[in-house]
């Protein structure tokens, strides 16, 4: 045997990736599992917390509500997203670019801005509600389960829209024409041919919206009132307004993670044989609808995206209104911005610095890990790929709690530093980058790198000179998604921040909770603008359109 | 100019042996083709020579020097890929210059060699095009120019024509052959297309299941196959069950003298050597009766599918007359001239090779 163990660049990357994930993911999360299995008083191993969860009314309700929020948000987002994707890919709609821009605005707006804006419009003293009341129409304030599901639907549908648009655009038209020639009506064709073909995309976006919905903390907290979910219960128990119960908080977190995992496996099961390979011959064409049908289709598409973007628009408008304490006054003013600049400019810098540092680290390691996963398949990289699913399904609150438990004392004492917030963001968003790069690599044939090697470049140089330039769009897409979500990260930062490391989303959340709506609007507008600049820059630099957000 | 020696090369993936102790001796300047069905190990062998894969055992020796311990990028071997592997983000000129830059040649030298290589593959003036603007055939020409520009010691080609349409394939294979002859570069060419192999090669190595079945000139491979696999894989071959018994060759009810071996054999004969009655013929031959089942008219020839007692035989008739077309269903006499047949043992070994001519 002349075979040697080859220690190259990728061996070190593999070791490094495992080290990072073990320290920043497995080790912290193990603390949650451990705490959930210990009795708070005696310190003995026991299942008391789990027993309590399944026997106490308030926790049973929280589990039930989490399911309701998850499935409700997922269903709403799927209906809106698939409808919009179908209308815009199959019919000629005027202002497609505008529709896509509005969808992107809805996507990049911080999640809790939506909740807050809906309160401004339809809350107890909401503008629309009051307006309607003045003409004699009375609607109930938008709190509770309906509000949460509504906000999730309009918040998360752009994910579905962007993912399924791509899939719908990639269906071979001949397949649909074949169905038509076999005598299948257009409506039946939609359900028997078109939708099954894009099932993988639908399932992927269903999983994403479900997990986003059950992990979301800000929306149920702000708009849910007595609609408690696992994420809010865990935060309350941990946050300790009433003393705190870390064991219970941990057990709830574990239940939340298990729920997400069930859904992940469910998705895998649905897709177990739905792998379609198609040599795309003919792209689907957009039909010109006419008359009432055209009007209806336009109205449908624009209604969905306008309502989706409404919270962002409202927040921007309200940031320029005069306020007096929590109450908006008639007239325009920059006083909210003056107040922000005068008193709370630290969060702006914190947000920018934390996000930028995290994203640089994410892009570098995500690119290397993505390459490893797609080009060096073996047991070690396969397990790494599976482990990278975990940050997707662990809610930010849980990650924050895990970090604060493990990194509170030496050897790694980070509590209260900016680094701990950066590391939490890093490990939570690393999968976006790694998976985006892995997907981009599927489009680049491995023989390109072989060609470069045969022409005299070492494997490392071949990777830098040939592969990296070709996957720049994928790298950019992952970086953009990481940056946008990093800037808007609320849940883990809320657990990890101290006075000097407060970030904008946390500041906005606190302002909303304190009723300082003017400050919240101004801060949200600034955050939205920063996000928009990042998105625009990324589109501009990568020369790509909205699909960069996938 | 470089010669290549491969000794005892073996490789397995887990339990599957993809290469069983391969020995090859390729002369300097030779156009050597590895021919075989998919999965026969030919691409693995080529990629092992290139250094993209590593053998478990054996040696690869170029110009008397072992290269198998060198990494791929230090072997100085040009490679042309099935899917072209043209860098889509670089222009044609940048693609061709890619390997030259790795060698840190002076700029003027690089420019001269790029121009020379592009001229060689008849892509003069395409310097600033991007690959996306070019056809498959043009892209593969760029691939060839790029591999040749580094003036490699060996040129490896991995099914370079299989993604092209029939006409381009023939045109480009002629170009490849001309360029290879002119530069005299030792070339190893992988293909599963036997016609292509016959057309371009100095010598062909027929491979099956990780083994070398036969090495020979195109003429030897086609006319004197030494293994049943080579006989069946290259060109069309009729196989009929037969018996060697008491100094006679027995085919169906017929027998003719054939001294020597004993036992079960298969008679192999090319369609163009099957003679239909009326066409006459001299010398020893196996005579059979058959019915014309199907006539396939191919222009310069026609194929007759004949049903006989011993099995189906395809006969080729050159320059068919009009009346041959209406032969379906007729009975005909079939002559299999003894000096045109080959005999194979059930294990695939040859008993009697084909005609020497």
TrEMBL record, chain A:
What are the transmembrane regions?
Answer: 7-29, 67-87, 99-122, 142-169, 190-215, 248-271, 292-320, 352-374, 386-404, 410-427, 466-484, 490-510, 522-541
Alphabetical list of SUPFAM superfamilies matching this protein: MetI-like
Q: What is its main location?
A: membrane
**Pfam families linked:** BPD_transp_1
Asked if the keyword Transmembrane belongs to this entry, the reply reads yes
Q: How does it sit in the membrane?
A: Multi-pass membrane protein
Q: Which PROSITE patterns match?
A: ABC_TM1
Gene Ontology biological-process entries: transmembrane transport
State the superkingdom. Answer: Bacteria
| Cellular component GO terms, alphabetical | plasma membrane
Which UniProt keywords are given for this protein, alphabetically ordered? Cell inner membrane, Cell membrane, Membrane, Transmembrane, Transmembrane helix, Transport
Which InterPro entries does this UniProt record tie to the protein? MetI-like, MetI-like_sf
Per the database record, which ranges form the ABC transmembrane type-1 domain?
Answer: 63-267, 348-538
Record-linked CDD domains: TM_PBP2
* Localization, UniProt: Cell inner membrane; Cell membrane
In the record, the note on similarity to other proteins reads:
Belongs to the binding-protein-dependent transport system permease family.
Quote the PANTHER family the UniProt record gives: FE(3+)-TRANSPORT SYSTEM PERMEASE PROTEIN FBPB 2, INNER MEMBRANE ABC TRANSPORTER PERMEASE PROTEIN YDCV
- Descriptive protein name: Iron ABC transporter permease
Lineage start:
Bacteria, Pseudomonadati, Pseudomonadota, Alphaproteobacteria, Hyphomicrobiales
TrEMBL record, chain B:
Cellular component GO terms held in the UniProt record: ATP-binding cassette (ABC) transporter complex
Looking at the keywords, is Transport present? yes
Q: What is this protein called?
A: ABC transporter ATP-binding protein
Q: What SUPFAM superfamilies does the database record attribute to this sequence?
A: MOP-like, P-loop containing nucleoside triphosphate hydrolases
Q: Where are the transmembrane segments?
A: none
By sequence similarity, the record places it as follows: Belongs to the ABC transporter superfamily.
GO MF term (any one): ATP hydrolysis activity
- One Pfam family, short name please? TOBE_2
| Swiss-Prot/TrEMBL GO biological process terms | quaternary ammonium group transport
Tell me which SMART domains the record gives: AAA
PROSITE patterns for the chain: ABC_TRANSPORTER_1 (PS00211), ABC_TRANSPORTER_2 (PS50893)
Looking up InterPro entries in the UniProt record yields: AAA+_ATPase (IPR003593), ABC_SmlMolc_Importer (IPR050093), ABC_transporter-like_ATP-bd (IPR003439), ABC_transporter-like_CS (IPR017871), Mo/tungstate-bd_C_term_dom (IPR008995), NA-bd_OB-fold (IPR012340), P-loop_NTPase (IPR027417), Transp-assoc_OB_typ2 (IPR013611)
Which keywords does the record carry? ATP-binding, Nucleotide-binding, Transport
């Amino acid at each position: 045997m002349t075979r040697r163990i080859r220690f190259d660049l990728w061996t070190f990357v593999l070791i490094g990736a495992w080290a990072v994930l073990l320290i920043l993911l497995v080790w912290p999360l193990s603390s949650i599992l451990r705490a959930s299995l210990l009795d708070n008083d005696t310190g003995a191993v026991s299942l008391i917390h789990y027993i309590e969860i399944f026997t106490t009314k308030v926790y049973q309700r929280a589990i039930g509500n989490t399911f309701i929020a998850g499935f409700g948000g997922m269903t709403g987002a799927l209906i809106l997203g698939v409808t919009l994707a179908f209308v815009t890919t199959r019919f000629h709609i005027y202002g497609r670019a505008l529709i896509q821009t509005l969808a992107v605005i809805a996507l990049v707006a911080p999640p809790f801005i939506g909740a807050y804006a809906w309160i401004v419009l339809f809350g107890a003293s909401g503008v629309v509600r009051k307006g309607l009341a003045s003409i004699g129409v009375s609607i109930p304030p938008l709190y509770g389960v309906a509000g949460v599901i509504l906000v999730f639907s309009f918040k998360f549908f752009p994910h579905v829209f962007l993912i399924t648009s791509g899939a719908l655009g990639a269906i071979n038209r001949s397949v649909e024409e074949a169905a038509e020639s076999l005598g299948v009506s257009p409506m039946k064709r939609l359900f028997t041919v078109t939708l099954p073909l894009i099932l993988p995309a639908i399932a992927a976006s269903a999983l994403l919206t479900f997990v986003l919905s059950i992990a979301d903390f800000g929306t149920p907290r702000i708009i849910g009132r007595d609609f408690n979910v696992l994420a809010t219960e865990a935060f309350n128990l941990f946050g300790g307004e009433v003393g705190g119960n870390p064991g219970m908080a941990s057990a709830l977190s574990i239940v939340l993670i298990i729920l997400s995992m069930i859904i992940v496996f469910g998705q895998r099961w649905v897709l177990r044989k739905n792998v379609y390979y198609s040599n795309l011959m003919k792209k689907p064409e957009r039909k010109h609808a006419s008359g009432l049908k055209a009007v209806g289709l336009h109205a449908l598409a624009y209604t969905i995206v306008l309502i989706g973007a409404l919270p962002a628009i409202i927040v921007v408008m309200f940031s320029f209104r005069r306020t007096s304490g929590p109450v908006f006054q008639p007239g325009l003013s920059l006083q909210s911005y003056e107040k922000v600049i005068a008193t709370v400019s630290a969060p702006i810098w914190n947000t920018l610095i934390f996000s930028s540092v995290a994203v640089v680290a994410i892009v570098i390691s995500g690119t290397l890990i993505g390459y490893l996963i797609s080009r060096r398949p073996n047991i070690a990289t396969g397990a790494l790929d599976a482990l990278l699913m975990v940050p997707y399904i662990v809610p930010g609150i849980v990650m924050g709690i895990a970090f604060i438990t493990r990194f509170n004392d030496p050897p790694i004492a980070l509590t209260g530093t900016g680094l701990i917030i950066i590391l939490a963001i890093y490990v939570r968003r690393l999968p976006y980058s790694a998976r985006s790069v892995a997907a981009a690599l599927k489009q680049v044939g491995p023989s390109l790198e072989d060609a470069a090697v045969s022409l005299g470049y070492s494997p490392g140089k071949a990777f830098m000179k040939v592969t990296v330039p070709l996957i720049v769009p994928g790298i950019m897409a992952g970086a953009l998604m990481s940056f946008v979500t990093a800037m808007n990260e609320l849940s883990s930062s809320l657990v990890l921040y101290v006075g000097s490391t407060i970030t904008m989303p946390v500041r906005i959340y606190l302002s909303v909770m304190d009723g300082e709506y003017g400050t919240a609007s101004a801060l949200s507008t600034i955050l939205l603008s920063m996000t928009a600049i990042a998105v625009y820059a990324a589109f501009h630099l990568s020369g790509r359109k909205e699909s960069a957000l996938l | 100019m470089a010669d290549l020696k491969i000794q005892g090369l073996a490789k397995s993936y887990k339990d599957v042996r993809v290469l069983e102790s391969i020995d090859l001796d390729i002369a300097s300047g030779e156009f050597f083709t590895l021919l075989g069905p998919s999965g026969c190990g030919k691409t693995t062998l080529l990629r092992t020579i290139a250094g993209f894969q590593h053998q478990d055992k054996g040696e690869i020796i170029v110009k008397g020097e072992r290269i198998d311990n060198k990494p791929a990028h230090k072997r100085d071997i040009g490679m042309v890929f099935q899917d072209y592997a043209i860098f889509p983000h670089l222009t044609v000129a940048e693609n061709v210059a890619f390997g030259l830059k790795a060698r840190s040649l002076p700029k003027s030298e690089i420019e001269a060699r790029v121009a020379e290589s592009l001229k060689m593959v008849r892509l003069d003036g395409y310097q600033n095009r991007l690959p996306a603007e070019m056809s498959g055939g043009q892209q593969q020409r760029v691939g060839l120019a790029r591999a040749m520009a580094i003036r490699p010691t060996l040129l490896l080609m991995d099914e370079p024509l299989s993604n092209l349409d029939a006409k381009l394939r023939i045109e480009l294979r002629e170009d490849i052959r001309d360029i290879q002859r002119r530069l005299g570069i030792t070339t190893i060419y992988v293909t599963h297309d036997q016609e292509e192999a016959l057309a371009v090669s100095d010598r062909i190595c027929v491979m099956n299941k990780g083994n070398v079945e036969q090495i020979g000139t195109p003429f030897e491979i086609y006319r004197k196959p030494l293994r049943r696999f080579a006989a069946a894989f290259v060109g069309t071959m009729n196989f009929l069950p037969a018996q060697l018994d008491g100094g006679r060759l027995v085919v169906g009810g017929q027998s003719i003298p054939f001294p020597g071996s004993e036992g079960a054999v298969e008679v192999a004969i090319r369609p163009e050597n099957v003679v239909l009655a009326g066409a006459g013929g001299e010398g020893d031959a196996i005579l059979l009766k058959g019915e014309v089942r199907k006539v396939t008219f191919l222009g310069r020839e026609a194929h007759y599918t004949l049903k006989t007692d011993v099995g189906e035989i395809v006969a080729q008739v050159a320059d068919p007359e009009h009346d041959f077309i209406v032969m379906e269903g007729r009975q005909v006499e079939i002559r299999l001239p003894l000096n045109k047949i080959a005999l194979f043992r059930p294990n695939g070994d040859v008993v009697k090779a084909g005609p020497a001519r």
